[in-house]
What we know:
- By secondary structure, the chain is an all-alpha fold.
- It has a single domain, classed as TspO/MBR protein (Ferritin, Up-down Bundle).
- The protein is built from seven helices and no strands.
- It has helices spanning 2-23, 28-35, 48-70, 77-95, 99-123, 125-129, 132-151.
- Helix 1 (2-23) runs antiparallel to helix 3 (48-70), helix 1 (2-23) packs parallel to helix 4 and helix 4 runs antiparallel to helix 5 (99-123).
- The radius of gyration is 16 Å and the shape is elongated.
- The termini are far apart.
- 30% of the residues are buried.
Amino acid sequence: MMKFLRSLLFWEGLSFAVAFLGSSAMDESSMMWYSGLARSALTPPNIAFPIVWSFLYALMGYSAFRIARKAKFRALIPYIVQLSVNLVWSWAFFYFRQPSSALAILFLLLCSLLWTVAEFNRHDRLAAALLVPYVLWGAFAFWLNLYVVIHN
Length: 152
């Protein structure tokens, strides 16, 4: 039971550590910059982002935990890649204020997400299904980022 809990806490903790590191790219200055951008009418209110991301990071952590219990570590490599790319996007978009670079990074994120889903599906269909909301949100984020690139 203790090993189970330790593993669950590790994978959830890793996911939320990435969330924390990504959110640290968003200081007051970057948020002022963001509020001045032309954004899609589909852009959710700012309060929605931490709520959605918290939900997604929880799903990601649990999904990785399920795979860690069933498969060899190499099955988690795409997951670690997508977490890393996710983190880089936050810094590219908010801290460095490079929406075009961030869009390219988002494309890589979507590719790494699809790789993760495919790999997880080989070992645990539920673990793969838990990532579907993240893939959909990533596709939506791609649209929002593309809009910013085109209209600014």
